[in-house]
Structures are given as C-alpha cells and as structure tokens.
Design a protein that fits this description.
mainly beta, four-stranded antiparallel sheet
C-alpha cells in the first residue's frame, strides 16, 4: 500500500507512493496527490476500510469527536465527508454519533474523543465491522463503541461499556490499575458499582494514543497505550476474549527485550507493512506539537514474527526523515552566491531545533549549488556544505536566526544582516578579498546595529525598494505586517532607524483568527507577466509574501506608492505552513523561482515549467568531500538526467520498478565526471536506472514528471 503521513504541526498531510520494493525504503514522496485530500484534517488521521469496498476511508478529529471521509475514488482520488450521522434530535451531523443507554432510556450522543487523543479503530468483537475504543470524558477509562453493522456500509454504533478491559489509568500519572470497575450506564458489560475504582472522575493528563493489536495470538485484541506527558509506550494484554475484554497484565516499556519506544513526549504507534514482506511492522512517532525532537523522531521496528504474534526488532530512529532535508522549526532559506562561482547557493536559518520544553537552539546551514548550467539549460542541484555555518549552533542562546544578504558597503560583495527571534538586527560585513572569493562574514558594530526592532519572529530581506540606488531593509513577522526601513545613508554606508520605519508597508496585513501571520517578503523586478525584467522599460517591482496559512501572495503597484496600498496580483497555495521564502531566477530562464521553508523544518522549491526536488544529504554532517560515488539529478525530472560519478560508466539501462527493461540508453560524457542521458520518452512515474561500471552495478530510483509540466516540491 501507499502511505499517508499526517503532520500535526500545521495539520499537513503528505503522500508517498510504494514502489513494491523489499530492498531499502520503498516509499517515495509524491506531492501531486496531496491536492485530493481535505485541508480540514486535524488532530489525527487514520485509515480503515469500514464499508468493506476495498478502499481505505479516512477518520480524523472533529470538534465534537470524529469525522469520516468516505473513499469514493474511481480513476481519480476522491473523498466525501459524511454528513448523515444522527444526533439526539435526529438531525444529520458531520461527526460520528452513537446510541447509548441513559437512566431515562435510549438516547444518542457523539462518539467522544479528545482532540489530542488517538482512538483505536479495529474489529474488537470479531464480527467483521470496525469498532472504536477511546478514552471517555473523564479520561481514566476506555469506552467501547460497538458497530452493529446494520447495513455493511454504515457505522451503526452503540456504547457497550464505559470501561473496556476493566482497567483505569491514573489521574496524575500513567499508571495502569487493573480490575477497575466503572459505573457503566446500562451496557451488556455492566460492572458492579460496589467495586468501583475511587479514581473515577478524577482529572487526568489529557491526551492518550491507542492502537489495537493482537500481541499473543489468542484471537482478541490487546492495546498499545501512550500518554501526553510521557515518552514510553505500554502494552496492555487482554486476558479475556473478543466479547468481554479484561486487561490482566501489562508491560510499561514496549517493545521489551531490545530498544523500547522512548520519545521525549507522547508517542503514537501505528501498525503497517512498511517493507512489503506481507507482515505488519511497528512505527512510532511524536503525537505532540511543539515538544518533540526535530530529528530521529520516527522509530521503525521490523516485525520478524506474525501479524497476530509480532516479534519487533528495532531498526532505525529516522524512518522517512533520513531522506529529506529537515532544518528544525521555521526553516528560512535564502538564495545567495556564497562561494563566488556565480551560482545561487542557499543559506538557511531557523527558529531553532528542539532541545527541551520551550528551549530551541538556532543555527545557519549552507547548501552549495553543484548543478549543471549551460547556455541552453540549467539543472540546479544542492549539497550540504556546512551544517553549522559560522558556528552559531555552538551558542545555546541563539534562537530565531534569520539571515538576509545585500551589499551594504558598495564593495561588490554581499554582507549579512541577521534577524533574531525578539526582533534585533545584527550586522556582519563580508570581508572577502574579492567578490569572486567565498564570503567571510565578520561581526561589525554600526550605528543601527541592535537598535532596530524588526518585529517578533522576523523574516527579513534587503532590496532597493525605493529605487534610489541604495539598499533598504524590509521585514515581515509574527503579527502579519511588513516593516519598511528606508536607507537614509547611501550605497556605501547604509543607515536605518526606527524613526524612518513604516510599520504598515503597502497596508499588507495577513493574519489568522488569533492575529498571527508570520509574513515573509521577497522582491523582484518583473514585467506584467511576472517574468524578470531588469531593463528600465516595462519593469516594475513585485513583492512576494509567504504566510503562516500556506499561501504565497504577490503584490504590485509598489513603485511610487511606498506610502500607499499595494495591489494584490496573484496567490499560490502550497501544502505547508509558515512559509519563509526567497525569490530568484534559479534556473536562469527569466522566470521567478521560489524556495520556501516551512514550520516543520522542510524546504521546497517551485520552479516555473518543470519540477525539481532538493536532494537530501546522506547525513546531517556530510560535507562535499564525502560525496557518494554516484549522484543522480535532477530528481524528479522531465527530460534529462545527469550522473556525477567518480569512476567510469560502461552502460546505462532504464527499467520499471519491477526490474523490466525499458531500454539500454546511450549517454553523453561531459566534463568533471558528468554524464547526461535522455528520459523524455518514459511514462510518468517511478523508474530505475541501472549503472554498470567495470567493477559493480548500481541501481538508482528517479521520478519521471509529465513533459513540460510545472510541479511544486
């Protein structure tokens, strides 16, 4: 099966295609499918084919419990949110409801699950229908909602018991108390009130994640349970049966006998076949927003046993995340030529990387552009050159470091202004010997240094906005406005001040319901068709603004109107939150290309007319001198691929993911160990390239895009 990954940080759903391989990771990021899913998912997302039509349906949190999206796909992915569940007054509603027995008789209510909880969806009684176990309103007991299956394609639920498994969880800790009876109000599994546990009704830490699984091959379901204030996962063993569950034993740190789950806080567990061997594996990841590790936070356990008698072997802490760029929280990339080779590199700041509760440590990361540029084509490619550029990551006090670059002293190279989380601006002069040399940034005190307030969580840029020949300073920030600091000095000695600050630049204000926008501006001279135009005729200034809501806004009517209201020209919605962007002509085709960072630490590109995906370094500490022997790029691609190899290549073959040969492919030998070969005739999708040398055969995967298509990554 393919894979959905739901990121609670921003409520973002990611889509991955499964190539069927049993060698390595079979999943490949496929963002083109994300458009088919609702933007309203939050809390949790789970899949279950509840109506037995062979298509996975979707379940997610709702303010009143659980919402259901029915999979109605044919040749196109399509999901419909159900709105026909009946409430107490027989009104149709969008959330799951249940029948239950109250003291006054039969009535209806919502299926309760707290927004931070993850309920267990499974066939608990063995009748073929999906049931639900979730912690109730008071939080100590697990409630069991049985699906009576009136019509195989319905969810006809009844609350059977308010204490499934006859256990309770502590009110101030995550201790398990067995034989804890509840005041069950009329279900067939009613327990004795005389034995009612005294913790009933006590307040508990809100937030529990449940997963149903048969751990001991006894034909009933046990539970994996984790909690919001703890990093461990408990295994609760059902010593009853599938008609009446009774938890008779538990393990506090699961899996036992090896490496138990130990995430900083609130792990969630999921049971999926992740390596295509027909046996479900275990994966655990944080279920809490804003209080989890940025790295090594998706733990993968291979199942060496059976689905109903698992034997989990710990494999890795970075499943999927080992193949992506992750820059902590609030990644903020900027295009700049660091090494003087005329190619745009990337320097990325961030809010920080999680250290402990409310503590983040920021750093800058430098990616060198190692792409192939000719007179007729451009194939940018980036590799990690320094994962702690200028050493800012060594100081735990650094937080929210966001760079901007511009020649503020008219010496031909680009200097740096560094924004900090509380709005300070710090100046670093580039003291490289020549503009063609690598940048050497040195802290330098100037009159405006550390005296400006850029706004909280600033995202700044340097540009000659007023077209007077010197560079100005512009900053977005947390509260959705744009600040403009006019340069009142000159091209060789910049000067900014609070007294020359416009806090309502363009009258742009992009905020959500709580007044936050996290705006991020970038500028370019363009014509009306949004093509670059640096000539005096036909060019006008355009402002691109990233935002927390995942929309990129484009504004015009800026020239000669700096004190007025800018005109909105266009918008582009992407599947991310808190966009920190930089705009430049990366592919040298005269059209604006965009790199944006996002709240969860990822970094993506939008290139006009063709797709491009930033290849992740092999590790966070890789440097250029330690490149792998073969590098394949760009990936995805439309028409050509390049291979950089340190040894000679004898033959190239193109195959599908099942290993069936498409064709042997001729290739062109370029300079610097590069070869180029054509893939334009291949169909869209995942393919393999088989590279044969004198000593070995190497397989590489790549994704073929539609010809001349535009993709966002």
């Amino acid at each position: 099966m393919d894979l959905l990954v739901f990121d609670r940080d921003g409520n973002i759903l990611r889509t991955f295609l499964n190539d069927g391989s049993q060698l390595g990771n079979p999943y490949h990021y496929a963002p083109e499918y994300e458009q088919f899913f609702s933007p309203d998912f939050y809390g949790f997302v789970q899949t279950y084919d509840y109506n037995a039509d062979g298509k996975m349906d979707l379940f997610t949190a709702h303010p009143f419990g659980i919402a259901v999206f029915v999979n109605e796909s044919d040749s196109v992915l399509r999901f419909r949110e159900r709105d026909d569940f009946l409430d107490i007054d027989s009104n149709e509603v969008y959330y799951l409801t249940t029948e239950y027995q109250a003291s006054f008789g039969t009535t209806r209510s919502n299926v309760y699950t707290y927004v931070d909880d993850v309920p267990a969806l499974a066939d608990f009684n063995g009748d073929g229908y999906m049931d639900i176990v979730s912690f109730g309103v008071f939080g100590n007991f697990a409630e069991y909602y049985e699906n009576r299956g009136v019509g195989a394609k319905d969810l006809d639920l009844i609350l059977k018991t308010q204490c499934w498994g006859v256990f309770s969880e502590g009110g101030t800790d995550n201790n398990i108390v067995m034989n804890s009876f509840c005041a069950d109000s009329g279900g067939t599994d009613r327990m004795s009130l005389n034995s009612m546990d005294p913790v009933r009704g006590a307040a508990r830490h809100i937030g529990s994640a449940l997963m149903a699984i048969d751990l001991d091959q006894d034909q009933d379901l046990d539970l994996l349970l984790s909690d919001v204030s703890f990093g461990n996962t408990k295994a609760l063993y059902n010593g009853g049966d599938n008609k009446k569950a009774v938890i008779t034993s538990f393990e506090t740190n699961y899996p036992t006998g090896g490496t138990p789950i130990d995430l900083p806080i609130f792990p969630g567990s999921y049971y999926l076949d992740l390596d295509n061997d027909g046996v479900k594996d275990l994966v655990s990841s944080p279920n809490n927003v804003g209080a989890s590790d940025d790295f090594e936070n998706v733990w993968f356990y291979k199942n060496k046993g059976q689905n109903d008698l698992p034997d989990f072997e710990f494999k890795q802490k970075d499943f999927l995340s080992d193949e992506v760029v992750d820059l902590g929280t609030m990644a903020s990339p900027v295009f700049i030529d660091i090494d003087g080779d005329s190619l745009l590199d990337l320097v990325c700041g961030n809010y920080g990387e999680f250290q402990s509760f409310s503590e983040y440590q920021s750093r800058l990361v430098y990616f060198k552009n190692t792409g192939v540029y000719t007179d007729s084509s451009a194939f940018p490619s980036f590799q990690l050159a320094d994962d702690d550029f200028m050493g800012f990551g060594q100081d735990p006090r650094n937080q929210g470091l966001i760079p901007a670059f511009g020649d503020l002293d008219a010496d031909g190279d680009l200097d740096m202004v560094l924004g900090e989380v509380f709005g300070n601006a710090v100046y670093y002069e580039n003291q490289a010997s020549s503009p063609t040399d690598s940048a050497v940034f040195v802290r330098k005190q100037v009159s405006w240094d550390s005296t400006l307030f850029l706004g909280y969580n600033p995202s700044l840029t340097i540009y000659d906005v007023d077209r007077d020949g010197d560079l100005d300073l512009i900053s977005g920030g947390r509260y959705g406005r744009i600040y403009f600091f006019e340069n009142t000095g000159n091209a060789s000695q910049a000067s900014f001040s609070e007294s020359n600050k416009n806090e309502d630049f363009g009258n742009v204000e992009i905020v959500n319901l709580i007044g936050e926008g996290f705006t991020s501006p970038s500028f370019a001279l363009m014509d009306d068709s949004l093509k670059y135009n640096t000539s005096a005729n036909g060019a006008s200034l355009k402002m691109f603004v990233g935002s927390y809501n995942g929309t990129i806004y484009v504004y015009g009517n800026i020239d000669g109107n700096l004190a007025g209201t800018f005109t909105g020209l266009d918008t582009l919605k992407v599947n991310a939150k808190n966009l920190r962007l930089s705009v430049a002509d990366l592919s040298k085709d005269g059209k604006p290309d965009i790199v944006y960072g996002e709240n969860s630490g990822g970094m993506s590109f939008i290139l006009q007319d063709r797709g491009f995906k930033l290849p992740a370094p092999n590790s966070r500490v890789e440097v250029l001198e330690e490149e792998t022997e073969f590098t394949l790029f760009p990936n995805p691609t439309n028409d050509h691929c390049f291979i950089r190899a340190s040894v000679g290549i004898d033959q190239i073959e193109l195959m599908d993911v099942q290993g069936r040969l498409h064709a042997k492919r001729s290739f062109v030998q370029l300079e610097d160990g590069l070869i180029r070969f054509d893939v334009s005739d291949l169909p869209e999708g995942i393919h393999l390239v088989r590279i044969q040398t004198a000593e070995e055969v190497i397989l590489k995967k790549f994704f073929k895009l539609p010809s001349n298509g535009t993709q966002a990554y």
